[in-house]
Amino acid sequence: MRLIDRIIQCRTPFIVENRLNGSHTRLSGAMDAAADLERCPIRYVLDDALISLCTDLAYSNGTTIMECADLIRVPAENIWVEWCNNPWMHALSRNGLNDDTDDDSPVGHYGMLIRACSDGRRGVMRSFWSAGDRDLDVNASATQARFFLDEECAPMPLDEPGVLRVAAREMDPEGVLSRCFQFEFEDSWARYYREAAPSSAQQREILHQSIGIVALAVPVLLAFFLLLTTRAGLPQRQSRLERLNRHRLQRGHAPLADHIAVSAPLLPPYREAQVEAAAAGARRHPRLHHVRGHLVRRNDRLIWRVPHLRGRSQAGVLKSRTVEWRFEGQAQRGERSSRGSTP
User: Fold this and answer.
1) Is residue 271 part of a domain?
2) pTM of the model
3) How many Å separate Cα 42 from the centre of its chain?
4) CB 337 within 8 A of CB 228
5) Which domain holds residue 166?
6) What is the DSSP letter of 75?
7) How many whole angstroms separate alpha carbon 76 and alpha carbon 42?
8) Model confidence over 108-166: pLDDT tens digits?
C-alpha cells in the first residue's frame, strides 16, 4: 500500500514512555498528519526510474541543484511527494552515499509533506516513511526543514522561545543545503526534548542525529521540482480509483487516495553489464565501474551527462550520453512556466 494511504488510515497516536517515572507523552506522528494529507490537493507518486534520476541529478558532479535554485518552485501551497525506498537507497549508494547500511533490499516508502507560500519559494517540509504493515511502522520525522529559495538563511538564535534550529552549513559547510535550508524540531518534539534533554548542547546533538536521512532527501526533492519546471515537464498520469474504491467500500475497507503517478522522461539507455569470466591467460580488462552523472547549467539550459558504466565493452555503448533540458525565458523571478522540457 502507498504511504499516503497508510498515513490517512493511521489511527494510532505516537506515545513515548519515560522509563524513569512511567509518564507518557504524546508526540506528533503519522496519525496527526492524516487530515492534512487527506485535504492535500496535489499528491505525487514517483516511479522507480524517476527517483533514481532525481537522486543522480541531486548528487551529480558539476553544477549543484542549489545553483539552479532560481529555477525551482514548489508547484502548490500544499503538496505531497512519495517514492519507494529500494531504488532510492540503491541510487544513494551508487553516488557514494548511504554506504553504512548493509540492507540490500530496503522496504517501504518515503514521502515529504510540503507547505509553501503562494510563490513556491518559501515553506516547510516534513518527512514520513514506512517500514512494515502496522500503524506503528509508519513514522514521522521529529524534525522539519524550512526553506528560503530567494535568500540565504541567516543563522537563527539558539534561545528563540520554543524553537531550536540549526543551519545546514553547520552540518556540511560546502554542501547543497547550506544556502537556503534550516532544520528544527517539530513543536511537540521540541517541547519533549527541552524536558528530556535540558542542555542545549544535548538538544543540538539530538537534532543533528535526527536530521539524517531527511537531509539526504531534500536535494532529491528539489531535483524533482526542477524537472517539473522544464518546458515539457514530466510524464504524469492521474489515478483512476473510482471502481476499486467502490469495491473497497463494499467490503468495509477505507478508500484509497487519489494521486498523480509521475514517470521519468525518456533518456539515452545503457545496457547493464554482462560480466563473463575471463578465459585463462586472457588479457585483463579494466574493472567495470559506475561513472556519476555531470550537470552543467548554461543560462536557461541544463546539460546532463548521463551516469554510465565504464570498463568492459560488454557493458554496452550509449548512443548519446548527453541530455538537455530547457526552461522558459524569465523576465522576472516568479514569472515561471509550470511546464517543462524533456530531452
Assistant:
1) no
2) 0.80
3) 16
4) no
5) 3-245
6) S
7) 7
8) 999 999 999 999 999 999 999 998 878 889 999 999 999 998 876 655 554 454 455 66
